[in-house]
Amino acid sequence: MSLFKVKQWWSNTTKNTDNNEHCFSCMKVDKFNSHNDSDCILLGEGTLLKLFKPSLDQDGLLLEIELSDIILQIETGKFIGISGDREIIVLHPQSYVIYELHRKEGLTDAGEQNRITAVIKHAFKRLAYNMTVGPFGSSKARDLICVQSLDGTLSFFDQDTFLFMCIFNDILIPGPVAYVMSSDMFVICKSTWALEIYSYQQLRESSELSLRQNKTNIPQWTYNAGEEISAVQVIRTSSNFSSIIALGERHLYCFQDNGLMKALIRFDYTPICFHSYLIGWYYEPGARLLVMVASDDSKLYVYEGTKLLWACDLMMKAVSLSRCFINSLPGGVVTLYLDGKISVNYLGTEPDLNPSVNIVNEIVSPVEVQRELESVEEALKLIISDDKESISELPFIEKTISIKTTIGKPIENYNEDDILENDKNVQSMKCPLIITIICKEPKLIQNIQITYICSSPFIHSDNSKYIDDVNVTQIIETDILMSNDYDVSNTNIKILFTIIEHTGKIVILNRSIMLPLNLYCSVGEKNLENQIKLNVHVNETCLDLTNIFTDFTKEELSNFEAPVNNITFKYKTTNKTVTIYANEQEYIIESDDYPEISSVLDHLLNKLNEYYIQTNIGVHITVRPSKEFIIQMIHRFLKSIETHAKERIKLKKLQDELNILQRQFTAVQKRLLVQYGSLPPADCDPLEFLMKDTHQRIINIVHEIIHNRNVVCRAGNTLAAIGRLIISILRNTSTDTLKVVLIEEMLSLDLLHDDCQEWEEAVTKVSSFVTNKLFKNSEKDKEKLAPVTEQETLSHINLKRFLRKLKIILEKVFDEIKEDSTRENVVRTEELVEII
Length: 836
Prior knowledge:
By secondary structure, the chain is of the alpha+beta class. It is built from 14 helices and 43 strands.
């Protein structure tokens, strides 16, 4: 079975504008006498005009010049008549300029010079939309120019001389215009979704003076497509006739220039652009007309008549297609992409137009599958195990580069651009994050990219930093601040370092640092309604809390009257409180809800470990949740998942409604254009009322979507906070490291971002593996917990089964922890009795 291949010979990436957006781009492929051995490609990007002559090993940039105005379109032709070579005409919004291309050969290839000279420049008052050129009126001396304005007016020019103007009253929005040289006619696409064909003589007679005399102009022939025509191309296909190819929203039309329809193709995709070409000469009886079409999903299709010959993927969305002939490549495909990149490709072997079909006759051995699964599980255990012998030496890059990350004290945020009106209290503080990179041998490093990853409500002032010239010492600083009033779920900032060595090898290092507590908390008064308690046991006497929470000064901690070794923190985002007090060998955390405990517990455990490591005291820290605490925590976690899923369902309904309203608005708008353009104009009041009403409904539902998206993100943060609390407790209570890691990977709380909240879909797949492998369930239980594949994950049945499955998993994990702790206590009691 042969596959379809696309080989890329060369590409040219355009430069960005100051606001990092790509300018409007247009392309023209033609051959010049000065470069007759290969086609040249003209590219207009913003005000920049480029000329390429590609070859197999290089892009062949011949010329690059900055023009004085935006380039709308580029065409070629013989506009002067006295020159033997073709000239270049560039259309600007209010003028066009004709250039001559000059080539001066040097003694070597590097000495060749190419330049363009402006020979004619003509300005006009009406804003231009597009143009078409050709020997209008059977002119044999030179090509004439037809410019269509934004109001649909056609203006005809000969060099810099204005000839006449043709006005159409039924054109509200300009469309494509093409010239048929074989019959001296023009194809005009009107806003009434109709193609009308006029002869040059008709247009000349229906000038502005004729229209004032109320003379009607009847086209040679017309065709009502019933949809917007986005592009038209005329190609000579025989000695007597030319073909007119028009691209609509869902169809491709092919006419003979006398109005006879030759082919009609209906697409099951959205086309963007097309290009037609002949294989062979038009006067040969075996000449074949092929049409290339680029789709909205970045694919390329090649048709002959109504038959699909080729299909392949493109790098990205194409905005223009053409065909070129270069050295050693007769018949390349030129593609201009959305980002301004041009590529020249060729078509390979015979394609497989249905490559996604699975081979149903392939036999898979269950024994082989089971053996592969067991090998994967063994490899996973080796990765998770703490066997130091399996740890290899540090790579060369870690020996060359030393990275140090430090977090500064929170300071006042004086940047008004970062502070929103509704979140002044939340965003009043920012925290500097400083990275120091020391490179022993900078010459061995090409560049370093630093990427910051943090969870809401925290944001960073810079998404990433790029270091191109690596020095011995680099100091990079960014700011961390809060952007909203969500629950604090993760206070760790993850930093990725993407390092490219001089050999081109890419190495990725990561670091993590915890934010200071006083960035998102302040000292407050104790809430007497706090009923949730979590105990943290240590085998040493409890420390003074002022020595643990060093982010605050002792004066700040003593502002509120409180018992000894008792501190209450208040979250700046939610105004909820958490109280911590020490009692002999136990730290007790009290709160009104579970999300508030998560961040403070992580901070407390981290500070205790740092203190005892610095003092070289061996200590064993154990989190001891009560049975009631575990039951209520699991219940609260499942309720947060249910809330998150229900809000996501509401958001999806709103988005579906918005899509319907958008299609309705587009349909009404198009229908209204047809009504406006009809002669005489029909009654447009009902359609205008419907369009205004639809527009207002779109505005209202967009506001609802924005509000509901914030609600979904808030629910996601609450879910993540409780989930991290569960993982933190498991880490400090369970002795089965593999099981804890699998539970952590199953929950995958890092998947919850502001832009992506599809957490339930991912966890559903993993939870099935965990229930089947970690726990012994009967076949009946597995059948009850299996998802309904015909329905979505957020459907009522599947969501209910998903919550039941998570409840079983978490309850069994915590039950095993209780059994282990009870077994240890029994053994210690027996040993104590024997000693007595």
